[in-house]
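Following the same procedure, backbone shapes were mapped to integers, yielding the entry below.
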Amino acid sequence: MASRLRAEVRAEVRALREAGVRPRMSVVVASDDPATRVYVSSKAKTAEALGLEFTVVDLGSGASQSHLEATLDGLSRDPEVHGVMLEFPLSRGLDPDRALRRICPEKDVEGLTPGNLGLIAAGRESEALLAPTPQACLLLAATQGELRGERVAVVGPGRTVGRPLIHMLINHGATVTVVTEGTRDVRAALEGCRFVFVAVGRAALLGPDQLHDGQIVIDAGINVNEGGVCGDVNPAVYPRLAAYTPVPGGVGPVTSVLVFRNFVRALRLQRGENVHDR
């Protein structure tokens, strides 16, 4: 799926270049988190392979809130920048919600601004730029069957994955159960749910004691431990499942490409094209 999406984005970028457009994305970094620089470097390589310009605005760990917001304001107003991304985490003391409000919704390639999240919650998903990880979850789930009419569960209503995913699932006609840290009996809550989406960030959170035989599990959790990267699902339960996404190698590769598909959609929105059906 990631390879197919990458080919589609590359073709779209080529067509835009042939039309005289210079596609350009900017990412803003405001921390000294070493993992952030690895992620940004990976995105830069992908952007180069796809044929679009990619600039990094590194404000460092000492950036003030006003400097961060002014930088995002400037990029949002710059007609030569077609996509803006704020890399998380931010340095301690910086307010991510205030910062995100400074990104123009039509340049918000990660779909995290209030404007885009509000459109999704209002059932106007076709007008929004969608957060890439929830998009990836839905695309992978769809390989196993229709979501409409199915009982599904979202474990972890976090801001970047779980909350937008809940509204997107509702928009797709699913009946949604939400599992939070206050849920007393997780196994009972997940009973009868054909699809289980999990994005908490806690290794081996779900296993044989919570999941049921034959379920389809989409694991968007990322955890780093001594053994490397793992998801939120205990691999011991894999043989009992109908299907699952491994970590690494599941949701991640699809998410990475969808950031750039969002970028192409954002650029076309800025050009006044009708992309509601794309």
Remarks:
- The chain has two domains: 2-120+253-270, 132-250.
- The mean pLDDT is 95.
